[in-house]
Amino acid sequence: MKTNLINRNLFKSITAALLLFGLSSQLNAQCPTVTNPSPLICDAAGLTIQDLNSFATDINNDIQWYDTPTGGTAFNSNELVSEGVYFAGNSTGVCGTRESVTVSFTVSPSNQNVDAVYCSNEAPTIQLYIDEVLSLVQPTGGSVEVYTDFELTNQALLTDMIPTGGTNYFIVFVDSGGCRRNHSNI
User: Fold this and answer.
1) Looking at residue 178, what is its pLDDT?
2) DSSP letters of 159-180?
3) ∠124-125-126 over CA atoms, to 5°?
4) Looking at the domain assignment, is residue 77 inside a domain?
5) Same domain assignment for residues 50 and 26
6) Do residues 102 and 139 lie in contact, with contact meaning Cβ atoms separated by under 8 Å?
7) Are residues 54 and 7 located together in one domain of the fold?
8) Residue 78, CB half-sphere, CA atoms under 13 Å: how many?
9) pLDDT of 110-159, one tens digit each?
10) What residues does 180 pair with on adjacent strands?
11) Within a 10 A sphere around the Cβ of 87, how many other Cβ atoms?
12) What is the pLDDT of residues 148-186, one digit of tens each?
């Protein structure tokens, strides 16, 4: 009789362990896996958080990017990517410690203030702004693109007047190899 009791308890323990292993495997199977933890990105212009999904795989198509390996704040999928570290999780937050992606751009940041102040009688144009401010920080042999919208779909004309009172423009620097990088809006 003792043999049956021991066998029964052993069977229950093995069954419980298998269930626990199966559940933990199921939870981990839902979490994204980073396939390229250190991508070197050439065309960073318009790169959004959603675009980081190309550096991770997830069978449920439920990748959510966070600012810390555990807990933290989720990024908006339409937010522009800056150089830095991003952590792949899912929308339920059950991944435990998240795998990371360290984003680096081949076009280095200018780290320069690209603001300009013009008097109302100067009638400044986009070309004047490029010549006086942006050309000083553009990549050697490269160019500058100025856009009027966050999505980088409406490129400003060089002859466009900069409105009195200021406005926001979105700057893209292009290096001699064609790599593009956003500059913070001004």
Assistant:
1) 80
2) TPBPPTT----EEEEE-TTS-E
3) 130
4) yes
5) no
6) no
7) no
8) 3
9) 566 777 888 877 889 999 999 998 988 888 888 999 999 877 889 999 99
10) 174
11) 22
12) 987 788 999 999 998 887 788 888 888 887 887 766 544
Residue 133: give the domain boundaries: 126-183
Q: In what order do the strands lie in the sheet with 170-174?
A: 143-147, 170-174, 180-183
Alpha helices in 30-168 (DSSP H): 126-132
Angle at 147 between CA 138 and CA 63, to 5 degrees: 95
DSSP structural state of residue 125? B
Tokens 């292009």, located at residue: 174
User: What distance in Å separates the CA atoms of residue 113 and residue 9, rounded to the nearest whole number?
Assistant: 71
Whether residues 16 and 43 fall in one domain = no
- Residue 94: count other Cβ atoms within 10 Å of its Cβ: 11
17-41 pLDDT per residue, tens: 544 444 444 444 478 999 999 987 8
Are residues 64 and 94 both part of a single domain? yes
Amino acid at 42: C
| Number of compact structural domains in the chain | 3
